[in-house]
Specification:
Layout (H helix, E strand, L loop, with lengths): L1 H12 L45 E6 L9 E3 L2 E8 L24 E9 L5 E10 L17 E2 L3 E5 L5 E5 L4 E5 L23 E3 L2 E6 L6 E6 L5 E6 L10 E4 L4 E5 L5 E4 L6 E5 L11 E3 L2 E6 L6 E6 L4 E2 L13 E5 L10 E3 L2 E5 L4 E6 L5 E6 L12 E3 L2 E5 L4 E6 L6 E6 L9 E3 L2 E5 L3 E6 L2 H20 L9 H10 L5 H11 L9
Parallel strand pairs: 17-21
Antiparallel strand pairs: 1-33, 2-3, 3-4, 4-5, 6-7, 7-8, 8-9, 10-11, 11-12, 12-13, 14-15, 15-16, 16-17, 18-19, 19-20, 20-22, 23-24, 24-25, 25-26, 27-28, 28-29, 29-30, 31-32, 32-33
Length: 517
Amino acid sequence: MIGCKRLVLFFIVQLPASVMAIDGTTTSDWPQFRGHGASGVADGRSLPVEWDLETDTNIRWQTVIPGMGHASPIVCRGYVYIVSASTGVSEDSLRVGLYGDIDSVQDDSAYVWTLYCLSAESGQICWKRTVYEGQPQIKRHTKATHANSTPATNGRHLFVQLGSEGLYCYDLCGRLLWKKNLGQLDSGYYKVPAAQWGFGSSPITFRNLVIVQCDVQKNSFLAAYNVGNGREMWRVPRDEVPTWSTPTIHDNGRQAVLIVNGHKHAGGYDPMTGRELWRLSGGGDIPVPTPVVAHELVFLSSAHGSEKRLGAIRTSARGELVPNPSKDTEDKRIAWYEPRDATYMQTPIVYGDYLYACRDNGVLSCYNAGTGERLYRQRLGNGGTGFTASPVAGDGKLYFTSETGDVFVVRSGPEFELLTKNAMGEVCMATPAISNGMLIVRGKNRVFGIGEPQDAWIVQNETNSARYRNAHRHPPKRRSGLTAPIRLLRRVWPLRSPRATRTLDRRNTWPGPNGKR
């Protein structure tokens, strides 16, 4: 536990360089699926345009992760957390591409689910924990794995959702705090119940709650648990078909709203009580994309089946919304609506004033986020390549990852401009993460840290540290409430440059795989 105490002190000293987010993480963290607020955006640092695995150009590190997993990496306080499921033997049963089969993988093997902690600086595995061992209760789709759900963190706890194998809470040093059995969660095809596909929705956090959306074949529900002890705080049933969407929180300071996607029931809830605030029916019958909030609008997309609805709902909406608005049935709570333009697998992204939505076949559309006017439609790839990972953005660039491992870099704006295409050399199904100017990409076998040379990052942060020290040599007369604690910390814990602190942190802070330093 000494290492964890030092981690907390390190984080407090570095506070001016990493502004605190509302949830207890920092703005440089990537705490859940698609980062803060599921936006997929991380600005403020330079991001790479090109990289090359053969020459190691802009490749900071690459780390082999045994097993398979579509769970995205998350980042907290300079460490990367990732989940994998493995049988212990070589697994080549992942089938990617553009196809419509509903088959399950016939596999009775026992699996080991593992939570990994990696150094974001070096990619080195700091520790790993076995979360669960056993035969999966539900089979997986040929394009899925048994580790689809992305972990989440509130800056103090790690939450790992394994579907039918339970919900787990760890501290940042890998100590198990509690676990919950959520029952059998089968998110297969509701028209053919025998087609089992596994589970894919990821947990999110809000204040003292971890929230899960469990839309499954039977007894769908939305629930919140206390982060400290796992006690169920509320649960509401949902009359809903299986979905793979992750919920989103929108908090404007006046009213927080928990937003979920769905076929029978997309809607908003009070995250503290589970009380329904608004609802909308219709759209694709296998909802996968996560709701996205920007410009006081909620963007919903679902494209499987006959309906392919893409639309924007005002965050002030309440009550039951008209599912298919027209000139005769205009609903002012719906800002705009396109009945045939939705995405099936990928979550759209709002970057600046524009909404970008990429279909499974690589057809990318850009819209005015406020009005829904389509500004361009262009194809990424050759039309025969599938796209499952959701896009991320930063530094004026958008990153779209194909299933075959090509990352297309597109300049943001109302006109299409493809900057380059970078090959990862392996299948990529997970959505990347962004932290401190580094793109973190998960492939089938490896996790990659991609960024410009690290020396530039060190110099920039050492400059920030120098400015911080100078500011506190001559503090203003009106001091903030943090002045006294910082002065005390400087006496007992000398302020160090980021280079020195990271070296100390890497040497002494984290316990190894066996819990020992």
